[in-house]
What does this fold into?
Amino acid sequence: MQATLSPSVQAASPRERILMTAHDLFYREGIRATGIDRVIAKSGVAKVTFYRHFPSKNDLIYEFMEYRHLQWMAWFTDALARHGGGPDALCPALAEWFADADFRGCAFINSVAELGGTLPAVVAISQRHKQDMAAAIAGLLPPSRHNKQDALDLALAVDGAITRAQTEETPQSALASLKRIQKSLLASR
It folds into this structure.
């Protein structure tokens, strides 16, 4: 079983292996579609080890979302900085993510769609994620008394671009639309 794990996952603690395995499966295949037994088998831990770290699937879901939030925000802020750190960094950063072979849309939008009606904490974590994303976007914008609202508007457009990129053959039209929205919004200042 361990031989199927990547070297970085094999070197991790049992808790980290469970969390990284759940992250990959939940994001790639969906939370409801991924059973605990599959996470246990893929992570190479014993069932008792799993339940020692995560007493329920809900506990694992919340940890997955927190982990995903930290990982994605670290990547996002780094990508924005690598692409110049200004308003023009947004589309190239997202293009980088959309081009990733593992791209499956926004884990938070997907999780709310799957579980938002049954697990209110999923909605709360997702709202915090979207607020942090908007704050990162606000950091790209030139100073203005409208920065907070402009960032929220752009974050909404980003969510639309993510969804569109997830459903279309290529992300190019989603990125082009986002760029037009961004240009129009910033020109209206």
